[in-house]
Design goal:
Chain lengths: 448, 448
């Protein structure tokens, strides 16, 4: 499509007659068991917008595709000079948001806005998906730390790193991914695997060696052969580990037995850590049944958002400006209707500070006492704020934003099940009127 | 754990007394609706093994972690020199395989084998997951092309690229991801989005412009406002597109109406392309109900393997060799039992060439007429075969391997539903005997 726009002349960025388009990126509907979503991935989206370009080799590849045989050579020159020159507004990372509320709004020459679509979607989609899952696990654990452990089952190495980042924003206490620890300043946690035990000729020796190397940090894995035998061996060593880990079997019964046995040994401070195919439901039911657990390691279900492995996220054209004329755009397809115009999200709180409802309005509207959530972040292709001196500062700020917003959500939304009464989100009267006006114009002009 | 091994002295690669460990990477169980899996991602796993190393900055980060404060400085020197020096056997990409059959077997100094674990798992897991989903979509489409369209909903940009690669290995006809097209020689397909239509003042003009730029390749999207009105507009233009695309609404009824209308216009060759939240069940039911569709674009459900977004893939220590002594290792945890020893997978075919069963045996076994599936691919950290001169050759070979293996599968396994009789896979008598022997030794030595 970008080739098409440039071919038609509307994509030539320096041409003042270019159409400028506004696209909004939003989630159409909540997955079945989510009451809200958590925005994440914006830093990476901005890095992409500031740095996107095409190499000569890439352009040669595209030029050679039969698909492009009739496209004007101007397109390949355009790609060679391509930089994103547009403006962007976005929800800060860690913001709680709802369907139809724009996460990101891009205004740019239409070909540029089109070229960046797929990367923006995949970047914001994935981290938002994982942050929105993490917050559920953190809720289920009721204040006990949840550690992200899932790199090996993430959808590739890059997904493992960004899952760790998004999980931390969503409230997890840390990650086992040292790359994410390094690049985003996320606390890292290690543990021993079954192979450490199996690699030793003797289980007790495996425990002793690990305790010697990591005297303050050793979490010993006790389920390789027999949990209770393993715990007796550790107690016999006479040196308290930081914790023991249950990764399989009857975690409920074992945790109760292990707690009692550790306490009897005077090791009240030794933590019991659970892992092994956990998700928020399993954590909640273990705790409800009285499991004696102090922390959780969650992998697969978190990094793949297993119960809802994708969001219905889209990037829709909402406005076109050509030769000074602004025209709102919309889509009428059955069940896929969209609203025209540049939008803002206004959040209303009650007297106690609890969020009571959102209004999706036009960006020049205002509502008394309501907080506009989208902020300007990029102008003419450049960040309005310099990137935080360390990426870790952005991540910490996002996590704080989420954790304090979570306190202000109506309690019913924190349930793992769908809230009987969803969070109220409405479109402003002006937005509804604009929709009607654009629809009528389309019908009257016989465009549809 | 690597720090632990090096600290203990067993990880120093040049030290002949180092423990050499054999790990096997396999899938424990099939997801509920899979009858077989398709190996994919090996090329990327080998690239990783040949190139893995630690930068000075990464090592400084690790050195600074409180976790490592008691670890011998030898460990950081070890990381600075780290290269993978081990051997590997693997199933070639495109091989059909079953639970408990090793996809990859690594033999290396134990610290090395441990360091590469997470990347190997995430690389092979993801592409195997997607190739195994793609083959279902291709089956459902019954010979009609399926195009991978999902980059925007993949778990990040890297996942989008490797999903395209794995989908092609699994039998898809191409991708909309041009990066994957470029790097792996996968056929690329473009289409127009709703924004192309909405960006024009007039829908007919949007169609005309697209046809002018892509006269042989234009697939026109007809559901932005009203499918039937859009098709009439295209026919009125008098220039046949390659195809039209239905992305929402009642695809069954619309496809029948559109086919009839196009045929009436004499456009029997114009294809009808369907997309929009498709999966294998939806494709199968559309075709069963008589939808007139020629090709499918599948995004989200394919690139996230939405009905089964992860495999139960693990990397288990099966053998340790220390000072010339070889010891099989196993894990007895409830429901997570593993078999010791270096394994090979033997595939048996009947007189017609149809696969009739697999035997998981020890690597020095042989079974008359059975084909051993694991082949040696890396020795001393180097590939035994040079990488294909172009990555596209490896991808094409994998796709061919899958498509011809698929012909040899018992027909019941190609159903979208679980086969009443799964593919028979058994452990060899020698492997069962080794399991018993190792278990007895562990019990007798009171290790467990």
């Amino acid at each position: 499509m970008a080739a098409g726009y440039v071919h038609l002349g509307s994509g030539a960025a320096p041409d003042p007659s270019s159409a400028r388009a506004t696209f909004e990126l939003f989630v159409r509907t909540l997955p079945p068991r989510r009451n809200f979503l958590v925005a994440a991935g914006l830093e990476q989206a901005l890095d992409f917008l500031e740095n996107a370009c095409f190499s000569a080799e890439e352009i040669d590849y595209l030029r050679g595709l039969p698909l492009f045989r009739h496209v004007s050579p101007r397109f390949f020159d355009y790609l060679a000079r391509f930089r994103f020159t547009g403006d962007a507004w976005a929800l800060p990372e860690g913001t709680i948001f709802f369907p139809e509320e724009p996460l990101l709004r891009i205004t740019a020459p239409i070909a540029e806005a089109q070229i960046v679509e797929t990367s923006l979607l995949s970047t914001l989609h994935f981290q938002t998906l994982i942050a929105s899952k993490a917050v559920r696990l953190v809720s289920a654990a009721g204040g006990r730390p949840v550690i992200e452990f899932g790199s090996r089952r993430a959808h590739g190495s890059e997904a493992g790193v960004f899952a760790a980042r998004a999980a931390f924003i969503g409230g997890c206490a840390g990650t086992s991914n040292t790359y994410a620890g390094h690049h985003f300043g996320i606390p890292v946690y290690g543990t021993q695997a079954h192979s450490w035990i199996m690699g030793h000729d003797d289980e007790a020796e495996a425990f002793r060696n690990f305790l010697e190397i990591f005297p303050e940090d050793a979490t010993l894995l006790v389920d390789t052969y027999d949990v209770r035998v393993a715990v007796e061996k550790i107690i016999a060593l006479g040196r308290a580990p930081r914790g023991v880990r249950l990764d399989s079997g009857d975690i409920l019964a074992d945790s109760i037995w292990v707690r009692e046995r550790l306490d009897r040994a005077g090791w009240n401070g030794v933590q019991i850590f659970a892992s092994g195919d956990l998700d928020e439901d399993r954590i909640a039911s273990l705790l409800e049944d009285g499991a004696r657990l102090d922390a959780f390691g969650v992998g697969t279900s978190l990094v793949t958002s297993a119960d809802a492995p994708h969001l219905n996220v889209i990037y829709k054209l909402v406005e076109v400006e050509r030769g000074g004329q602004v025209r709102g755009t919309l889509k009428l397809s059955e069940a896929k209707k969209t609203y025209p115009g540049r939008k803002q999200v206004f959040r209303i709180s009650d007297a106690e500070g609890t969020f009571s409802g959102d209004i999706i309005g036009l960006d020049d509207e205002s509502f008394p006492g309501a907080q506009p959530l989208l902020i300007p972040i990029l102008r003419g292709g450049k960040r309005l704020e310099l990137p935080a001196s360390e990426p870790s500062a952005a991540v910490r700020a996002a996590r704080e934003r989420l954790l304090s917003a979570r306190e202000r959500l109506p309690a019913r939304l924190l349930s793992l099940e769908p809230a009987a009464e969803p969070f109220p989100v409405r479109h402003s009267a002006r937005l509804e009127a604009l929709f009607e006006q654009v629809r009528r114009t389309l019908v009257q002009s016989r465009r549809i």
